[in-house]
Amino acid sequence: MSTLEKLSELESRRAAIENSGDEAAKEVSLAKGKLSARDRITKLLDENSFVEIGAFITSRSTAFNMDVLDTTADGLISGFGTINGNPVYVYSQDVNTLGGAIGEMHAKKIVRMYKDALKMGVPVIGILDTVGVRLQESIDALEGYGAIFTQMTHASGVIPQIAIVAGDCAGGAAFIAGLSDFVFMSAKTAKMFLNSPNTIDDKSATFDHIATAKVHFEESGLASFIADQEEDVINEVKNLITYLPKNNLSEVPFYNVTDDINRADANLNSFDFETSKIKDIVTSIVDNGEYLELNGKYGADALTAFARMNGGTVGIIANTASTADYHAVKKMSKFVLLCDSFNIPIITLTQGTHFTSTLATEKLGIIKECSKLVHAFANATVAKINVILNEAFGSSYIAMNSKHIGADYVYAWPSAKISTLNAESAIKIMYDKEIQSAPVASEVITQKTAEYETLNSSAYAVAARGYIDDIIEPAATRKRVIAALEILATKQIDTVYKKHPTV
Fold it and tell me: Stretch 220-228: mean pLDDT, rounded?
């Protein structure tokens, strides 16, 4: 065979690979409005940047008629490319080939992506669309699961891991999403579940109750972002990549600053906590008012988002309500760990009177979850800046990146009140007998409350004890935070060696 004939054969084989898959399955996918595995990669990566790895791999199994089935690329498209010039490794499961089921060689291709990504120190993006484990390959398929999970565990906290759930993600395959740092789901076509509804004790359970993007965005908290169209999901992943460093040893990405770093916002000086939204403060202080919120509908008492200040990525955590429930606490803890792993400075906007709980969340372990939040902040070595906006009381104040658990700089607005609990409640406890015996109880309460606020809970009283570094004009919040970020850019901490924490 001549060289030209060999080249012709190569082109023919490549064309067959690119057009492989069950035709009936393709029609079903098309009817659902789903993109193909290759189209997803094409839309995700920069034009002409994708380099495919392992295109000629097929299944080795011959059991249960596997030898007569089409296993082109073993149901997985994998390789590397760039997103806005940033290198990434990517794989995309092809549901049109054996339902995207994970078998031995399919798993080895994913493991290869992880091993290469760890060597190069760049993110991995997995596009999931699979019926789960490949039953025909039995224990070899389960070995593949274990190999994937092991590599993902090694990669955790070293390189960013992103999962896009574009179709079904069933059984053990859902662990791939669970082990990822970020999960994006298509609201129209994605279903993610560990066990099918017909195996659940509650026989009224359906996929709508346990598996949809809405469930994982609002109730389980597993989904970072959802959108109806796959293209919108992919675009948000591309946006996220611009905020992330390549790995845990890289600095956060910096972009040219087009916003005045000394910009003041006079509107913040008259901020009304009763009628205004804390998100307005976030918009006011970050570059160009732009931020990427994660888990927006889960734990809505807290906002977690990436933004830029002075061109560099920061993590924003803000109390959107004066209370924080079980879900908000879990959300904040995870975000602190994420930021700390990838050298992203943390800025908290604090207003919290107490943690809320119910009988259910007390039994679920809200005490442990709140403890994890304290541990996450205290253990984090990145730059930590706290701005206390309004009332901050008791354990919720302590847990929210306070000076007491290691914040580098703590600022307060003049409106801030910091104490064990609100002044009137404290007075009613401390002066119970005097109030009970007073001719006019309200006068005693008013007098003592004013004294308590002046001597104990005002921002000035707390600053006098050194627990607040400065009381700032709200309008100047942006430039004061940026100034702190600049000095903290060279922060270094020597930590005590330990294998890993136990919290």
Answer: 97
Which secondary-structure segment (H or E) carries 118? helix 104-120
Q: Is the pLDDT of residue 98 over 90?
A: no
Amino acid at 414: P
Give residue 170's domain range.
3-241
Residue matched to tokens 């060999």? 6
Instruction: Give the number of C-alpha atoms closer than 13 A to the C-alpha of residue 174, restricted to the C-beta side.
Output: 18
In a domain, 443, yes or no: no
Let me know if 466 is exposed, middle or buried by CB neighbors in 10 A (0-12, 13-18, 19+).
Answer: exposed
pTM of the model as a whole: 0.92
Compute how many other C-beta atoms are within 10 angstroms of the C-beta atom of residue 108: 19
275 and 180 co-located in one domain: no
- Of 418, 350, 337, the residue nearest 381 (C-alpha): 337
CATH of the domain at 213: 3.90.226.10
> Average pLDDT, whole number, for the chain?
92
Q: Distance (Å, rounded) from C-alpha 481 to C-alpha 387?
A: 9
Query: What is the rounded distance in angstroms from the CA atom of residue 420 to the CA atom of residue 433?
Result: 21
In sequence order, the 6+-apart residues with CB closer than 8 A to the CB of 282 are 291, 303, 305, 307, 316, 318, 349
Q: Would you mind telling me the total number of residues written for the chain in this entry?
A: 503
Would you call 225 helix, strand, or coil by DSSP?
Answer: strand
Burial class for 59, CB neighbours closer than 10 Å (0-12, 13-18, 19+): buried
194 with 157, same domain?
Answer: yes
Shared-domain flag, residues 223 and 275? no
* Cβ atoms within 10 Å, residue 68: 6
Specify whether 167 is located in the same domain as 214: yes
What is the predicted pLDDT for the residue at 62? 60
**Statement to judge: residues 129 and 192 lie in one domain:** yes
Residue 284 to residue 282: CA distance in whole angstroms: 5
Q: Look up residue 101 and give its amino acid.
A: A
Strands (E), 23-144: 51-52, 76-83, 86-93, 124-130
- Pair of tokens at residue 444: 């005693």
Is position 261 within any domain?
Answer: no
Nearest residue to 40 via CA among 160, 132, 167: 167
> CA-to-CA distance for 449 and 297, rounded, in angstroms?
37
Any domain includes 195:
yes
pLDDT at 155 over 70: yes
When pLDDT is averaged across residues 129-145 and rounded to a whole number, the result is: 90
- pLDDT reading at 497 higher than 90: no
pLDDT digits (tens, 9 = 90+) for 373-398: 999 999 999 999 999 999 999 999 99
| Cβ count within 10 A of residue 317 | 24
